[in-house]
Automatic annotation (TrEMBL):
Descriptive protein name: Glutamine--fructose-6-phosphate aminotransferase [isomerizing]
Parent-record interval covered: 257 to 622 of 622
Subunit structure, as described in the record: Homodimer.
Superkingdom, natural source: Bacteria
Annotated ranges, domain SIS: 43-183, 215-356
Enzyme class at the top of the EC tree: transferase
Active site: 361
Catalytic activity: D-fructose 6-phosphate + L-glutamine = D-glucosamine 6-phosphate + L-glutamate
Gene Ontology BP term (one): fructose 6-phosphate metabolic process
EC number: 2.6.1.16
Entry keyword set: Aminotransferase, Cytoplasm, Glutamine amidotransferase, Repeat, Transferase
Gene, per the UniProt record: glmS
This protein's GO CC annotations: cytosol
GO molecular function: carbohydrate derivative binding; glutamine-fructose-6-phosphate transaminase (isomerizing) activity
UniProt subcellular location: Cytoplasm
């Protein structure tokens, strides 16, 4: 049932060409230049008028939520707070009746996320869900929602569920932004058009699989790793670090690249691999300087760059080129090499990637 792949995780990474397609099917139409999300159609007016959105989740779903924050802010100009469900439920959170609470969960069964939903409902907020498992508890508890349609995810490390969650968040933010008038028609249409090219772009990244395996060999003895990104790619750095630590047991941290100076740069020496999401966007020049800072301290830089980038290629130890895309869609592509790097490092270290120690696929106890 692993479809010829050695592990479910690898199969699921490769499935992202079709899973993204399944997530957008019937929802993004390049012909009509329209986004349609049936599950939340009735609450779109509420979203358009929302004073704020609270996004809750755990682990990878929380990282997807972080991308969601940037997306809603950019397209719909709605303030967003992203909360760990476990903290939110035990804090004494301020929840207004006109808040939109958006719970993200692959399994739809995460105990802390469910408890946070109950709290939000008691406070009278509108609660929406983004879940993968159809008929699970969270979709039953929420007022409305959107399924990710990524298909079953068996590997404990979330891969295709993450890209599906980010895809749904992108569609939601685009739709709300367009209806609200904060996302220009031209930009909206550009995004819709680009969406249809994502599966083929992911396929192109996956063709580099063996090169990525080769470069991963260099890092199997590492004891620490840093992941850096800025803007939309900061949450991708967090996700890259989580992927590495949960399956390879190498300690890894994700940071916004500019935060390095405020502490983590002290860790950098010739033994430290630094994985940088550095595709061409608004912060490109800034991330180039961050890479220089790492190199000046002899860190090993492995950078994910836009095809044809020669500037970073001259500075970094390795570059992985990925196809160009719109800035807001870049998380969907840049995360893929990070997934593969973690997978290969873990496999080469002899780890059980599908069932890492101490972890369960769905955390139904707090
Ligand atoms: O099923 P959920 O999305 O609610 O699960 C949340 C986390 O437990 C999950 O994302 C976890 O962090 C994964 N192992 C990450 O790969």
């Amino acid at each position: 049932e692993k479809g010829g792949y050695e592990h479910f995780m690898l199969k699921e990474i490769f499935e992202q060409t079709s899973s993204i397609h399944d997530t957008i099917r019937g929802r993004v139409s390049p012909q009509n230049k329209e986004v349609f999300l049936g599950g939340i159609n009735d609450v779109i007016p509420k979203l358009v008028n929302a004073r704020r959105i609270l996004i809750i989740g755990c682990g990878t779903s929380w990282h997807a939520g972080m991308v969601g924050e940037y997306l809603f802010e950019e397209f719909a100009r709605i303030p967003v707070e992203v909360e760990y469900a476990s903290e939110f439920r035990y804090r004494n959170p301020v929840i207004f009746e006109d808040d939109i609470v958006l719970a993200i969960s692959q399994s739809g069964e995460t105990a802390d996320t469910l408890a946070a939903i109950k709290l939000a409902k008691e406070a009278g907020a509108t609660v929406l869900g983004i879940c993968n498992v159809v008929g699970s508890s969270i979709p039953r508890e929420t007022d409305a929602g959107v399924y990710t349609h990524a298909g079953p995810e068996i590997g404990v490390a979330s891969t295709k569920a993450f890209t599906a969650q980010v895809t749904v968040l992108t569609m939601m933010a685009m739709l709300v932004g367009y209806r609200k008038g904060t996302l220009e028609k031209e930009e909206y249409h550009k995004l819709i058009e680009e969406f249809s090219h994502l599966p083929e772009k992911i396929a192109k990244i996956l063709e580099k699989d063996q090169d990525i395996k080769e470069l991963s060999k260099r890092y199997i003895e590492s004891t620490n790793a840093l992941y850096l990104g800025r803007g939309f790619l900061f949450p991708v750095a967090l996700e890259g670090a989580l992927k590495l630590k949960e399956i390879s047991y190498i300690h890894a941290e994700g940071y916004p690249a500019a935060e390095m100076k405020h502490g983590p740069i002290a860790l950098i020496d010739e033994h430290m691999p630094v994985f940088v999401a550095a595709t061409k966007d608004k912060s490109y020049e800034k991330i180039v300087s961050n890479i220089q800072e790492v190199k000046a301290r002899k860190g090993h830089v492995i950078a994910i760059v836009t095809e044809g980038d020669t500037v970073i290629a001259d500075m970094a130890d390795y570059v992985i080129e990925i196809p160009e895309t719109l800035e807001a869609l870049a998380p969907l592509l840049t995360v893929v090499p990070f997934q593969l790097i973690s997978y290969y490092i873990a496999v080469l270290r002899g780890c059980n990637v599908d069932q890492p120690r101490n972890l369960a696929k769905s955390v139904t106890v707090e």
